Amino acid sequence: MGMYDELKDALEAEERRSVGDSFGGTGARSVFSLEPAYQALMRGVADYPSDPLGALLVDLGRQVHESRLFRWLICDAMRFAFLIELTNIRVSSTKKKTRWIPVPTSPNTSMSFGLTPPFDQAHDPRASSYADCYQMFGDVLQLLLNDMEFRATALTLAGRNGEWTYPLTYQVEGAPHVHTSTNVRKADLTDLNWLLKVEGLLMQASSPGVAPVLDMDTVKKIRTKAYRTDRAQTGSTQTNRAKRWEASFHDYQYANVESCWSVERALLESLADFSGFPSHARALLVAHGLALAVWNTRCCPVTLQVHAFADFSTQMSIGKSDFHVGHLHPLKTGGRHVGPNVAWLSRDGNRIQGDLSLHDAHLLIRTIANRLARL
User: Fold this and answer.
1) In this structure, which long-range contacts are made by residues 229-234, counting pairs with CB atoms below 8 Å and at least 24 apart in sequence?
2) Helix 3-18 vs helix 35-47: angle between axes, to the nearest 10 degrees?
3) 39-74: string of b/e by CB count within 10 Å (b at 16+)?
4) Is the pLDDT at 237 greater than 80, yes or no?
5) What whole-number distance in Å separates Cα of residue 6 and Cα of residue 273?
6) Of 338, 329, 223, 202, whose CA–CA distance to 274 is shortest?
7) Does one domain contain both 264 and 329?
8) First CA to last CA across the chain, in angstroms?
9) Over pLDDT 70: what percentage of the chain?
10) What CA–CA distance (Å, rounded) separates 254 from 331?
11) To the nearest whole percent, how much of the chain has pLDDT over 90?
């Protein structure tokens, strides 16, 4: 036995405990915990001092002294390298599991359970062997050790509340076997860095007794729209609240993590142009180069109704909002989940657009208006 085998045993034991036959069956549905795998790694460092992976962990520990941060850093690296969060259609939710243990039925569809292609390396590009995942984990640790910018970003994301993301993505997203070390690259951090700066400004009180412009609940709701798939329980790629970058590449709701960051940025960026957005907060954004000095009042792109920030804040706080995230070019008809293709829609705008493009929605409105004018 060595670190390679003991880590594999720990991950597979946790899959048996937490996943069971829950995909297409009635087995266990508890949360997959990386704690047993982390403990296996720490034991391995002591038991196998000459193991290359153990040496990497020791060197990284010398760079990250705070034990809680070190644990976050290692667990996030394991999460990226070894696990995937698949849609479990039977219970309309997602579940984390390893990338190499097969699922007997496709996680992407509820049609004909037991007859659809399974999640395994022969049928799903997202599946990977344990050996490939282990190699990737070692490569990620090397990156954390030697690339200070990458390590700083990973540490920042480790302590960031809300949805889990990681600063790596794939070079060829439609590759036959996508999750391999040779197909991984560092993500473009432009939009993420903007988000981190803006969140620091808008989620903190400007002075004692003054509420922050955005609270965590609102930010989490925005991230859910940016990062997770909408409920879709018909067709060949069914999903519900899966991470878009871990969905099937052929799913129309797929988007890489960079695109998801760009969507979150677009949604937050547009809030600063809502009517009544706090002027002191906007001045801060402008001063830090995070917003344009010119205030371009935002409106629903369908109805042209001006968006009011007071309405947005109130409705977000009570959990029922007339503000909807829409795609100007719908995903089902070839649109992409990227920042330039998303906007805040009013309740009426959302109803009118439906599955139409913005152009077709406007054409429909004009057609109806012309008919009304002839009455």
Assistant:
1) 229/87, 229/253, 231/92, 233/89, 233/92, 233/110
2) 160
3) ebbeebbeebeeeebbebbeebeeebeeeeebbbbb
4) no
5) 54
6) 202
7) yes
8) 84
9) 87
10) 9
11) 71
Residues 37 and 82 occupy one common structural domain = yes
Which residue, among 197, 207, 199, has the nearest Cα to 288 in the 3D structure?
197
Q: Indicate the residue type of 133.
A: C
State the number of CA atoms in the 13 A half-sphere of 74 facing the CB: 26
Q: Do 313 and 197 reside in the same domain of the chain?
A: yes
Helix, strand, or coil (residue 25): coil
**Residue 106: what pLDDT?**
59
Residue reference for tokens 């390298």: 81
Choose one of 187, 203, 220: the last residue of a domain.
Answer: 187
Cα(197)–Cα(215) distance, rounded to whole angstroms?
Answer: 15
Same domain, 260 and 156: no
Distances (CA, A) of 366 to 133, 302, 337, 353, 363: 55, 11, 27, 13, 5
With both helix axes pointing from N to C terminus, report the angle between 67-82 and 148-158 in degrees, rounded to the nearest 10: 100
Residue 211 and residue 354 in one domain: yes
> What's the mean pLDDT when you consider all of the chain?
89
Strands (E), the chain: 83-88, 93-98, 168-170, 184-186, 324-327, 342-345
